[in-house]
Amino acid sequence: MQPAIWARYSRRRSPRGRSQCAERSPLKIEARGCEERPETVGPSPRREELAETGRGRRRARAWWSRRRASARCLVILTLTSVLNGPHSVALADSMFPGERQVRFSQRLALKRLSQRPACRALFDKLGRSGAQLVADATFRIASPAESRRFCRRGGAALFTTVGGEEVTLCIGVFLRLPTKTQAALLLHEALHHAGVSEQPWDPDGLTSPALTQLVERKCRL
Fold first, then answer.
1. Model pTM?
2. Which domain holds residue 30?
């Protein structure tokens, strides 16, 4: 529907301030050269175009917002399926400070096990799967008493028990280490889970630094 349009005659004032055009006399308007300038009442086509453009932008923003929400859900579902698959990374019930870096180092250790046959051989000769041991490990932060005994006095970054699955983190020390060293220590603890002991508890075993150096050499860390 065409918008309603009406015409108004522009007036040119004389030096005395009187109008030179009479709106009621078209003949005088034409004779004096007055201009007829139409004005638009109601929404103009340009305003309607801008309004339609604004609505289109709002619809586009809403559509992209829904797409982003769907993509986030898809990523979450994908990660859930990956983490629940074979050799998945065991997640703790609650987050702890530095957990993202711990998980990153854990994934690096799993990557080295999949790429380096010599790294896998450390576990194969024990009859255990290194990837499964690393993935099944659970983590917790050292208690204040453990922190005083092992982290501050002993200088440990993490510790575990032979044949166990839980790794206790001296999180402040662990996070200051390079990522490759963190991954090597996680493999070190996985060897303890596989049954490897070390000095001084096992006189025939390697020292803790020697075991870490063995892991770094075999797994290229």
1. 0.58
2. 5-40
